[in-house]
Design a protein that fits this description.
Blueprint: E1 4-6, H1 12-19, E2 22-23, E3 27-37, E4 40-49, E5 55-66, E6 76-82, H2 94-97, H3 106-120, E7 129-137, E8 143-152, E9 156-161, E10 166-170, H4 171-176, E11 179-181
């Protein structure tokens, strides 16, 4: 499927909540929970078959684009996917994953596994002690591998090393290097 563009809804979350509730002659679909994360919307959708009563809860993954000053007024776009398509985005919150029913679909199970792995790689909170498996070399020439998170910002964390120095590191360091929480 491609992208659909339109004028941005007044409330994007509510727009998706309403979109995820629909009924056909064979099934009723209801949104159980929704999570908006940056440019992705994750939702747990319950589908109940009218004739058998069979119930399935699956994940919808909608990519979102915002366009600044579009020439045609279409400043909001989305691309709809389901977990069965094996989307690249795998940052679904645990509360959505916990609602999903078991499936035999290989792509859905691989996507769920990638999401669970991503949940274990969350950035640590202030006061947490961490150890990087390979030492980090900083611009001042020092190398350290054991730190305590001193301050936390949206994109960067300030770490206090064992030598008492403070170091600012970006999100890519956490994503690209192996580390463990030690306390």
């Amino acid at each position: 499927m491609g992208w659909l563009f339109m004028e941005k809804p007044r409330n994007v979350r509510r727009y998706f909540e309403e979109k995820f509730n629909w009924e056909t002659d064979r099934a009723v679909n209801r949104c159980l929970d929704i999570a908006m994360k940056l440019n992705v919307c994750y939702a747990a959708i319950e589908t109940v078959q009218k004739d058998t009563g069979a119930r399935e809860v699956w994940a919808a993954v909608y990519l979102i684009k915002y366009v600044r000053n579009p020439y045609d007024g279409m400043d909001f776009g989305y691309k709809d996917q389901s977990e069965h398509m094996g989307p690249c985005q795998a940052d679904c919150p645990a509360r959505i994953l916990d609602l999903l029913t078991a499936t035999d679909d290989q792509h859905a199970n691989e996507w769920r596994t990638r999401c669970r792995i991503a949940l274990t790689k969350r950035m640590p909170k202030v006061g947490t002690a961490v150890r990087f498996l390979n030492p980090i070399r900083f611009s001042d020439g020092s190398e350290e591998s054991v730190f305590t998170v001193a301050r936390s910002g949206r994109r960067k964390k300030v770490l206090r090393g064992q030598n008492g120095g403070y170091y600012r590191v970006g999100a890519s360091l956490w994503r690209d290097r192996q580390w463990v929480i030690t306390n």
